[in-house]
Amino acid sequence: MDTFEPRWTPREETEAEFLERFEQAKREGDRLASTEPCAKAIVFFPENRVFSLTLADGTTIGFAADKIPQLTGASAAALAEVEVIPSGTGLSWRMLDVDLSVSGLVLSLLAAPEWRKAIRQAANRLAAQSASEARTRASRENGKKGGRPRKTATG
After folding, report:
1. How do beta strands 90-93 and 39-45 pair?
2. What is 37-128's CATH number, 2.40.440.10, 3.30.2020.40, 2.40.50.1070, 3.30.70.2470?
């Protein structure tokens, strides 16, 4: 029988490294909370299969469970077991193995299809403009190899 050998070796993290990662996660959570809708509470009404979602800013949105494809056909008992994840940026139905982002849910409920497409495209453009360390490093490495290959005409 073969023995399992991991491709990587786990390393011990110092307390200082852990605390830095923890602070970084808190900063990211604060950033998300200030730029995206966050849930404060959600209540399910089984008699008409409707949810009432209260956002951190006090806005309340009602929506039918069957308007969400992942929830269509689920039992009332399973729908009632919804939780707001601690950061408020998501909702989780563990019994159904369904997790939804609050921003995605709000967008899908309130925006017309053509708006959703435009918003998605704008978000993608914004993400493409972000300069993470990994992206900067990759760009530098690519530059050392002569940069992006030239487009050639085919035909």
Report:
1. unpaired
2. 3.30.2020.40
